[in-house]
Every structure is written in structure tokens, then in C-alpha cells.
């Protein structure tokens, strides 16, 4: 009898999960109203089947009409089958494997759709966000920070946008780290479209996540709310280059409301893309210069042993001359070639060889740094 009871409970739980999926498809019913429905009816299954008159004691007229309209046309079994065909999973707020950190915020998303995996390891997560128009300095800093976090077994969270977000995801993947990408559209509608391949790679080494119902387009109104999930999934937020009017600063506002730490990379006072960062620092955010700053302050991660560049691989005097001119500050190839007394074409060849040896890195627009 006990086994029968357990089997029945599993069936009831599985069925109840589908009602969470159903309410996710109903306009005008969000986290607050779902909470009221649960308080009144005890379960979403009971609420889903309730008569309009009883629903009206909890919901306003528009929400009741919306629910009645959707449930008359939506098959929850077909909805689940559709997700299965697309290889998309969902987790409901009632599930034991709903992300722990996100469940602690005010009005967490009732349902998250995702491609990939969500694990207990994702409790150790840091968001890395910033401008879409990153400078070579910002690109390199984002790469270094995300690399250091991922190497320490910390999950890197970001928004799959151009610029800093994409750099952070790729850096984590490059060292076989976990990364989570949060979308402002349906999980199968990748924006920007040029990040489709990156999204597929993230799904193999983390997850692509959305709170939005199937078919949702990447409309501008979706992104501010998306940012609360980025910060909500993370123990802290790191901002790398952000102007004063920036989505990254909206993420910081959510982080402050959620009790998350905010770390900021200092930038030039003359750079518009660092104006928001410098404002955050002036307002009391924590400055950060390396991944170790974040790991130490947040008490996260495992510290990997540093791997120095093998100088024996630098076979020629010309390569050593180029390397001596490089630091962590990006330097353009034309400037390097002139300083080393080399033709630009020959300098380009030498830099390509050094990059293959792991001694330098092109951080964008033909700017190089020493590794």
C-alpha cells in the first residue's frame, strides 16, 4: 500500500507541475497573483478548474477572463509534449530543484524554461554584465574575470547580449566552466541571432534560461525584468564597462534590492562606457581588479594554481622584443610593429605565432595583450 501511495503522490505532483505550466501561459497572472491563488485554493490544479465566480474572489475581471480563455484552448499534455520535442525542460517554483538563490528573491518567476542542465553547483554563481559596446580594455577584463571565476568552479551568469555578456560566456566555456544565459525572449528564440551557436554551446555546459512563454519575441520591455533573474541567480554581480544609462545598472539595482553584492571594474574617467561604473563606485560599490578579489570577498570557489607562460617557447629575438613591449593594457598592432622596428606584415606574423604559443592574445580590433 505504501508503494501505491508513493506512486499516486508522484502522479499528483507531476500533474500539479503541468498547472504551473498552464498559468505561465495566462496573461495578467504573474507571481503575485499565483501566490494569491495558492493561498486561496491550496493548489494550482484546483485554481485551474475553478468557476469564474470563485476566481473573481481572488483575481480582477481581466485576469479571470484571460484564464478562462486560455484554459479553454490550451492542452497541458500537448504543451508538455511540445517541450519534449524541442528538448526544452521547465522547473516550477514548487519543485525541489528550482534554483535556490532565485527562490529567495521577491516574486521569483513561477516557471523557468531551459535548455541544458541546472545543478546544485550553480549555487556558487557570479553574474558578469556590461555594455554591448565594449572597448578592448573592457573585453580583456571581462575575459580575465570570467576565466578566473570559471577556473575556480564558479558558475558565470550573464544575458547572452553582444559585448561583455558574450565575452563572459565564451571565456567560461573556454576553460570548461559552467555558464548560464538568461534571455528576454522564449528560450528557443535566441537574441541576438548571431549568438545561436554560442547558445547551443552554453546548453551543453550550463543552461539557456527564460521565464517567458513559447513564442515570446525579444521585445525591449522584457529585458529589465530579465535582469532581475540574472542577479537573482547570482551571489554577486560584477559590472565591466557600463554607461550611466545601461541595462547593467538596472541589474545592479535589482542586486541591491535582493541583498546581493555589487563589484565594479574601475574605468577611465574620460570613457563614456565607464561612466556608469565610476558612478557605482562613487555610490559605494566594491572595486574589483581580478577574479581573486571577488572570490575572496564572496568566499567562493576553488583557487587553481597559476600556469606561467613557458619562455622557452619564445624562440626568436624578434618574438622576445614584441613580448617585452606588451603588458595587460591592450596595444594596437601598428604601434607594436613601429616600437619594435618591424614591418607591420612581419609584426602580424610574429604576433600570430605568439598567440599560437599562448603568450599573447588578440582582444579585438587588432589590439594585443601579454598573457
Which range does the strand content fall in?
Answer: 5-15%
Query: What fraction, in percent, of the residue positions are helical?
Result: 40-55%
Q: How many discrete domains?
A: 3
Element-level helix/strand string: HHHHHHEHEEHEHEHEHEHEHEHHEHHEE
Annotated CATH topology of the largest domain = Rossmann fold
Task: Tell me the name of the CATH class of the largest domain.
Answer: Alpha Beta
From the spread of the alpha carbons, the general shape counts as elongated
Strand order of the largest sheet: 1-2-6-5-4-3-7-8-9
Q: Which class do the helix and strand fractions yield?
A: alpha/beta
Please tally the helical runs, counting DSSP H or I stretches of 4 or more residues. 17
Report the end-to-end length measured between terminal Cα atoms.
Answer: 65 Å
CATH architecture of the largest domain: 3-Layer(aba) Sandwich
Low-confidence stretches: 1-12, 306-312
Tell me how many strands there are: 12
Mean pLDDT equals 87
Task: Walk me through the structure.
It is a single chain. This protein is an alpha/beta fold. The chain has three domains: 75 residues, DNA polymerase, domain 1, CATH 1.10.150; 179 residues, 3-Layer(aba) Sandwich (Rossmann fold); 60 residues, Orthogonal Bundle (Arc Repressor Mutant, subunit A), CATH 1.10.10.10. The chain is 47% helix and 14% strand. The chain contains 17 helices and twelve strands. A nine-stranded mixed β-sheet has the order 1-2-6-5-4-3-7-8-9, sandwiched between helices. Strands 10-12-11 form a three-stranded antiparallel β-sheet. Helix 8 runs parallel beside helix 9 and helix 16 crosses helix 17. It is elongated and about 85 Å long. The N terminus is likely disordered.
